[in-house]
Fold:
Amino acid sequence: MDRMALPRTHHCSACSDGAAPDSVLHEDLVVGAPLSMEDLTDAQRLDRFARKYAHDGCQVREVRRVPHDSLSGYAWSVRFTEKS
Structure:
Protein backbone atom coordinates (compact mmCIF):
# COMPACT_ATOMS: atom_id res chain seq x y z
CA MET A 1 0.00 0.00 0.00
CA ASP A 2 1.39 3.41 -0.91
CA ARG A 3 1.88 6.12 1.68
CA MET A 4 0.62 9.67 1.23
CA ALA A 5 3.05 12.52 1.60
CA LEU A 6 1.08 14.89 3.83
CA PRO A 7 2.26 17.77 5.97
CA ARG A 8 3.63 16.71 9.37
CA THR A 9 2.05 19.77 10.99
CA HIS A 10 -1.28 21.42 10.39
CA HIS A 11 -1.36 24.72 8.52
CA CYS A 12 -4.97 25.79 8.90
CA SER A 13 -6.50 27.93 6.19
CA ALA A 14 -9.79 28.42 8.03
CA CYS A 15 -11.14 27.96 11.54
CA SER A 16 -14.72 28.12 12.78
CA ASP A 17 -16.99 27.38 15.72
CA GLY A 18 -18.74 24.54 13.89
CA ALA A 19 -17.24 21.89 16.18
CA ALA A 20 -17.94 20.59 19.68
CA PRO A 21 -17.45 23.14 22.49
CA ASP A 22 -14.07 21.67 23.54
CA SER A 23 -12.63 21.50 20.02
CA VAL A 24 -11.86 23.74 17.05
CA LEU A 25 -12.79 22.98 13.45
CA HIS A 26 -9.94 23.53 10.97
CA GLU A 27 -9.50 23.06 7.25
CA ASP A 28 -6.27 22.02 5.51
CA LEU A 29 -5.67 22.14 1.79
CA VAL A 30 -3.53 19.14 0.81
CA VAL A 31 -1.80 19.50 -2.56
CA GLY A 32 0.17 16.68 -4.15
CA ALA A 33 -1.67 13.66 -2.74
CA PRO A 34 -1.20 10.59 -4.96
CA LEU A 35 -3.55 10.10 -7.90
CA SER A 36 -4.56 6.79 -6.31
CA MET A 37 -6.68 8.85 -3.89
CA GLU A 38 -9.09 9.25 -6.82
CA ASP A 39 -9.75 5.51 -6.84
CA LEU A 40 -10.77 5.35 -3.18
CA THR A 41 -14.31 5.64 -1.87
CA ASP A 42 -15.24 8.58 0.36
CA ALA A 43 -15.01 6.31 3.41
CA GLN A 44 -11.56 5.04 2.40
CA ARG A 45 -10.27 8.61 1.87
CA LEU A 46 -11.66 9.64 5.24
CA ASP A 47 -9.92 6.68 6.88
CA ARG A 48 -6.62 7.37 5.08
CA PHE A 49 -6.52 11.02 6.21
CA ALA A 50 -7.84 10.14 9.69
CA ARG A 51 -4.80 7.94 10.31
CA LYS A 52 -2.47 10.78 9.23
CA TYR A 53 -4.11 13.38 11.49
CA ALA A 54 -4.58 11.11 14.53
CA HIS A 55 -1.06 11.83 15.83
CA ASP A 56 -2.18 15.26 17.10
CA GLY A 57 -5.42 13.94 18.59
CA CYS A 58 -7.33 15.41 15.65
CA GLN A 59 -10.45 13.85 14.19
CA VAL A 60 -11.12 14.18 10.45
CA ARG A 61 -14.72 15.15 9.66
CA GLU A 62 -14.70 15.58 5.86
CA VAL A 63 -12.42 15.03 2.86
CA ARG A 64 -13.39 16.44 -0.53
CA ARG A 65 -11.70 17.26 -3.80
CA VAL A 66 -11.43 20.95 -4.64
CA PRO A 67 -10.05 22.85 -7.68
CA HIS A 68 -6.47 24.11 -7.32
CA ASP A 69 -3.79 25.65 -9.52
CA SER A 70 -1.48 22.65 -9.15
CA LEU A 71 -0.23 20.37 -11.92
CA SER A 72 -3.07 17.91 -11.31
CA GLY A 73 -5.64 20.75 -11.22
CA TYR A 74 -7.05 19.85 -7.82
CA ALA A 75 -6.27 19.42 -4.13
CA TRP A 76 -8.01 17.79 -1.17
CA SER A 77 -9.83 19.83 1.46
CA VAL A 78 -9.56 18.10 4.84
CA ARG A 79 -11.80 19.38 7.63
CA PHE A 80 -10.82 18.18 11.10
CA THR A 81 -11.45 18.98 14.74
CA GLU A 82 -8.66 19.57 17.21
CA LYS A 83 -9.16 19.28 20.97
CA SER A 84 -8.43 22.53 22.76
Notes: Residues 7-11, 13-19 have pLDDT under 50 and may be disordered.
